Task: structure prediction
Amino acid sequence: MEDFVAGWIGGATSVIVGHPMDTVKVTGFFKGMSFPLTSFAVYSSVVFGVFSNTQKFLTQYRYEESNSSSSLSDLFLASMMSGVVSVGLGGPMDLVKIRLQMQTEPFLKANLHSKPRSKDLWNRPMYQGPIHCMTSIVQKEGLVGLYRGANAMLLRDVPGYCLYFIPYEIISEWITPDNDTTSNPYTVWLAGGIAGAISWGTATPMDVVKSRLQADGVYNNKYKGVMDCISQSYQKEGFKVFFKGFTVNTIRGFPMSATMFLGYELSLQILKGNQTVTNP
Result:
């Protein structure tokens, strides 16, 4: 239970740090801040909780000891499990966030086939808030509409979390002195930041595809799926299109993930009564 609570705290603090840079890719700094602050905290709670408990289960199953060190294969499987779970929970949240952030065009301006209406509708946004956005998607596309871009998100998050948790573990172990048995805040911050930069940087190509699929459907439907989106994007904009936002993702990944891991580890130590914490 402590892992889920600590993940929630870490997620909340990381949103405050990372959200302004996240919205740079789409629109203003703090647009749509309230929704990701609440939703991402829950999302992080589940992801970190699933990773930690899967890791503990695998370690205990293999070695019959809950305090044994995890093998690389255990970390890999736990990371993959986190990636799969992240799509099931985070897909709808990410979709709503993208839709709200992209509302820089009025409702009718992009709809060339709409009948003329009163002038005030030209400045009306498509969605009035997170709940309205979610209900509108369900009414228009059904529950499956909430998982638009889920395949791309799965292809992003499964390897993405492997390149998130595993580098964190390796770097933490590498820079921690041999005689240090507790989590040093600076070690956690540095390892978490580097892991975040690696993960978000390498995830950029599929993040571009995911975002385009999730943004698609507000006014028109351009893409039939992941491969069609990749094909159309490449044909129109070339290979470089898949690295749009690479710099922002990498730079943002460091402070956001550093804050995430630091908040998680410190919260976990407090919740467990300052016991030694070496793994997320």
In short: The mean pLDDT is 81. The domain at 148-279 is CATH 1.50.40.10 (Mitochondrial carrier fold). Helices lie at 2-24, 34-63, 72-101, 130-141, 150-175, 185-215, 226-237, 246-271. The two ends are 13 Å apart (CA to CA).
